[in-house]
């Protein structure tokens, strides 16, 4: 595949990934999600503002943004590099959407969707770590961080092709980076737990 194909794959993935379902659902209800809770355009903040059912729906739609471009290219071209480029584009589009001032979500759902299409066992291993961590800590953010940390090692142990491993490893590291404000709050004991509500939006670095 040529460089043009990779550019088209990553750009197409980015265009799809940059659609913010959280923002669209919130606007439909007259809510500016960037002024509520963490101000983040992701499923977790949407769940707090709009209800758990809506949050789950947004998570699934965000996951599809990664699953569809990566999966379609993987199944039609059988080229892991091209498919990984599309998945990476979707992930970056969700985290840094050009339409919303490069302020999007943290990317767990979109990255998990891309990897579910490209390496289901990697996604499952990281998903188990996410679930176990949330059960132990009652912190969605801690589970998301664990998810990001496990992705690269899981893909390496499973012997995935290099493009898929690189997506898992570097995508996981970027995912941890997007949670840097959460990490600081976890360290200081100020991070929200399931069932708790934040009294006010956190500083801009969490957005």
What can you tell me about this protein's structure?
The chain has ten helices and no strands. It has helices at 3-17, 21-28, 43-50, 52-77, 80-95, 108-118, 120-137, 140-157, 162-178, 180-188. The N and C termini lie far apart (37 Å). Residues 199-207 have low confidence and may be disordered.
N→C terminal distance: 37 Å
Q: Give helix and strand order, one letter per element, not per position.
A: HHHHHHHHHH
Q: What profile does the largest beta sheet have?
A: none
So how many helices? 10
Short description:
The protein is mainly α. It has helices spanning 3-17, 21-28, 43-50, 52-77, 80-95, 108-118, 120-137, 140-157, 162-178, 180-188.
Write the layout of secondary structure elements.
Elements: H1 3-17, H2 21-28, H3 43-50, H4 52-77, H5 80-95, H6 108-118, H7 120-137, H8 140-157, H9 162-178, H10 180-188
Helix pairs in contact: 1-4, 1-5, 2-3, 3-4, 4-5, 4-6, 5-6, 5-9, 6-7, 6-9, 7-8, 8-9
Keywords:
mainly alpha, 71% helix, 10 helices, 207 residues, disordered C terminus
């Amino acid at each position: 595949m040529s460089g043009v194909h990779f550019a088209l794959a990553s750009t197409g993935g980015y265009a799809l990934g940059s659609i913010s379902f959280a923002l669209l659902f919130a606007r439909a209800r007259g809510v500016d999600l960037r002024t509520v809770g963490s101000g983040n355009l992701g499923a977790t903040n949407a769940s707090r503002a709009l209800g758990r059912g809506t949050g789950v729906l947004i998570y699934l739609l965000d996951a599809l943004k990664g699953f569809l471009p990566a999966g379609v290219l993987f199944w039609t071209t059988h080229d892991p590099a091209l498919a990984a480029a599309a998945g990476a584009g979707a992930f970056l589009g969700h985290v840094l959407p050009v339409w919303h001032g490069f302020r999007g979500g943290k990317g767990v759902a979109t990255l998990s969707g891309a990897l579910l299409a490209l390496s289901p066992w990697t996604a499952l291993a990281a998903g188990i770590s996410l679930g176990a961590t949330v059960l132990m800590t009652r912190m969605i953010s801690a589970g998301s961080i664990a998810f990001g940390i496990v992705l690269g090692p899981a893909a390496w142990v499973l012997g995935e092709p290099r493009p898929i491993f690189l997506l898992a490893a570097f995508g996981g590291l970027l995912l941890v980076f997007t949670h840097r404000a959460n990490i600081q709050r976890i360290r200081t004991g100020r991070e929200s737990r399931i069932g708790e509500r934040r009294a006010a939006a956190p500083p801009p670095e969490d957005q």
